[in-house]
Write a structure and sequence with these properties.
four-stranded antiparallel beta sheet, Ig_V-set, Immunoglobulin-like, 2 helices, elongated, 2 domains, Ig-like domain-containing protein, mainly beta
Length: about 190
């Protein structure tokens, strides 16, 4: 979203506070924005928000004008077209990259791997899943303003070396030979019966 006006409130309750110090953090670097003294004055520091910042000296909130917010897209989960090795499948989670995008694989509610790289247009993260694993896996794409998650049902992801394709692949293989050569096989909620 471009040109958005966003107001931030101190979010401190039950305390009598008369001064707020606002900062902006990006890539582990903190930048001073403004010091608001309730009912009195405000001191604006020279920042990227200069000329686009307003404060409410009654409650300590700040508003930043003309702010660009990048929402993260829903990640895609694909299964490798290579046959499983020793009952292990390879699946990849990918998402269109943007400012401060982080991609994380979860087994249940436990984070098992994570990736962030601002130098690529598509962020990807590989995960190996054993055929007998009945856990639910999910991939989360996140940035400071949004979170998207895609779930993979590993029980439908057969990873044995019998020469048969998994049911997920059978469902997604109704393509011509030329399309099949260029296609990646999608393991997503749309294949659930």
């Amino acid at each position: 979203f471009e040109g958005e006006n966003v107001t931030f409130h101190p979010n401190i309750t039950g305390l009598q506070i008369n001064s707020y110090y606002w900062t902006f953090m990006q890539n582990n670097q903190t930048e001073k924005i403004i010091n608001v003294i309730i009912g009195e004055t405000k001191k604006i520091h020279r920042t990227r928000f200069e000329g686009r910042l307003d404060t409410d000296v009654k409650n300590g909130s700040i508003t930043i004008f003309n702010l660009t917010l990048y929402q993260v897209s829903v990640p895609n989960i694909t299964k490798s077209t290579a046959p499983p090795t020793n009952g292990v499948c390879s699946v990849t989670c990918s998402v269109e990259n943007g400012p401060e995008v982080n991609l994380t694989w979860f087994r249940g509610n436990i984070s098992i791997s994570s990736s962030s790289n601002q130098n690529v247009s598509t962020l990807t993260l590989l995960q190996h899943i054993r055929g007998e694993d009945s856990s639910t896996y999910s991939c989360r794409a996140q940035n400071p303003v949004s979170v998207q998650r895609k779930t993979l049902d590993s029980q439908r992801l057969t990873c044995h070396n019998s020469g048969k394709r998994s049911s997920l692949l059978e469902e997604s293989c109704s393509l011509s030979k030329s399309e099949r050569h260029a296609a990646q096989f999608l393991c997503s909620d749309q294949h659930r019966s």
